[in-house]
Amino acid sequence: MKHIGLYIVLIIYISCNTTTKQKSDAKTEHKVSNTFLERVEPPNWWVGFKNNTLQLLVKEENIGNSTPSISYEGVHINKVHTGRSPNYLFIDLKIDKTTKAGKFDIVFTFKDGTKKTHTYELKSREKKADSYVGFDSSDAIYLITPDRFANANPKNDRFENLKETEVDRSHDYKRHGGDIEGITKHLDYIKDLGFTAIWPTPVLTNDMPRGSYHGYAMTDFYQVDPRFGSLQEYKKLSEELSKRGMKLIMDQVANHCGLEHWWMKDLPFEDWVNDQAYYEKNKENWSWKTVHTSNHRRTTNQDLYASEIDKKGNVEGWFVTTMPDLNQRNPFMATYIIQNSIWWIETIGLGGIRQDTYPYPDKEFMAKWVDAIMNEYPKFSIVGEEWSYNPLLIGYWQKGAKNRDDFVSNLKSTMDFGMQKNVVDALNEPESWNKGLVKIYEGLANDFHYASPKDILIFPDNHDKSRIYTQLKEDVVNTKMALTTYAVLPRILQVYYGTEILMDDSKKPGDHGLIRTDFPGGWEGDTVNAFTGEGLTSEQKEMQDYTRKLLNYRKSSKAIHTGKTIHFAPLNGVYILARMAENETVVLILNKNVKPVTIDLNRFKEIGLENTTLQNIISGEKLKWKKSITLNEKGSLLLTTKKNN
């Protein structure tokens, strides 16, 4: 009986404590209603950021006349802002360091006592900040225009609820149907070529009436365009790249949006976009005749003598008629853009960002934007597009630049349009004292101006410039010479899809629709398939194989990634450049002579290769570095001291 009594007491004790715990848990459990407003952006957030503030954009009819409240441990409303439009609220939140991930309701109470709710979620971060490692000089990036690469799912080609429904592959400026799944399906092809990262042009929704296949006229910054696929397919692309040790770079646009963006129908503030009052006055008759476009005087960012009207014309003018210019000086817009970038990094697991039209937004904001991202992801990478052939302008935007105006950009990488053009000119021009190969030699000499030359991005071509094969007048040898040069320079390398099979735009050089031609084999029924090699010409197959050998060597070459660079002034139509690391030397020889020419190697003693056996990276042939070398034909020779390549 004594034992039975103790047993009963124990049961009662456990029962009481269980009930107490359940009551305690009930106090911390947050029931949510799962009803939603028109928009709350960002649509979710995470706990554990260094910056523990968050600003929510709330869009709902008459929401500006409500008072929001949150009852969730560790989340506090610091301030609520109303806009010009009564249909917006901007809510400043503070998220404590100890806040747990979970869902909760934001309750909006109106003056008449009615309430609306929105369930919001704070997620746990899937990766540590240090694991977001960006691209660098060891990477070769494959640039893709998704609509023109491969159509894996024809079912997502058309959506009747979108403004542009026509798909016409015969038309250079209409949609062709390529999608995210088409890229994912061919990742092994891209990896086999030696690429380590991909950069697709934007895949966010462009619900524009026409010509929006390129993706740069966003109408929703938080939505994947359904014609490209779903958010889940975008995540899968990133995951599949990670499995292959590759990175996904997202093309983002801080400068402008599409004219059909949802907020253009109901702008939250009087200065949400630049030139807004003028637009609102003239929007019923809006056209290229009406719009105040940018003067495109990008040098006003650096010019000590630039007038205020010219500065304003560059920053505040619209890029084109259909792309409203975002006003980053509006603090709510500034926060929106920064949070949007971080949301995509965290959601997709990005390996980098390419920022479009970098010199057009407010430059002080852009410095803050980069700083905010790099503060959260210290090993991340961002490259900005500065379409200038002037190294002074290119270098101005790079972190570490000693700028006269003391501007600090925080930006790791910018694009080297200058050196891109130098290589093309060097190969197209006849040799003379100031023409031909000397353009490469003197162009590379400008590296003294850059804070970090190896963090600048070089490319043969891209989605805005003529194909390199066209730029070089469809000369295959010159195209190989150019690609080899770009690949060996102390730079990050980017190559446009199709360069490996000599795609061209020669019928209409510079025409954007033609530059972005469909990749053969990406559509069912294509008679030529570059993925399998079926139907390619012998020259195309040879170029594809050349690219594969070149980039796969580059992938593991410390000399190319981070080695010392030394080059020699061109002489008699020959230019020699060496990249040197501790146990590896790579030598590039560019020869423009059609007839055999013998080179005295005594001039190159400082490379330290005397009596060394080198291997031709492309052909595999061995060569002994002695007193001289005879070059029998025009072309490039890429040699390495590495064995068994």
From TrEMBL:
Q: Which GO terms describe its molecular function?
A: hydrolase activity, acting on glycosyl bonds; lyase activity
Keywords associated with the record: Glycosidase, Hydrolase, Lyase
Q: Name one GO biological process term.
A: carbohydrate metabolic process
Q: Which InterPro entries match?
A: Cyc-maltodext_N, Cyclo-malto-dextrinase_C, GH, GH13_cat_dom, Glyco_hydro_b, Ig-like_fold, Ig_E-set
Q: Can you say what this protein is called? A: Alpha-amlyase
Q: Please state every residue range assigned to the domain named Glycosyl hydrolase family 13 catalytic.
A: 143-554
**Pfam families in alphabetical order:** Alpha-amylase (PF00128), Cyc-maltodext_C (PF10438), Cyc-maltodext_N (PF09087)
**Which CDD domains does the record cross-reference, listed alphabetically?**
AmyAc_bac_CMD_like_3
Instruction: Look up keyword Hydrolase and say if it applies.
Output: yes
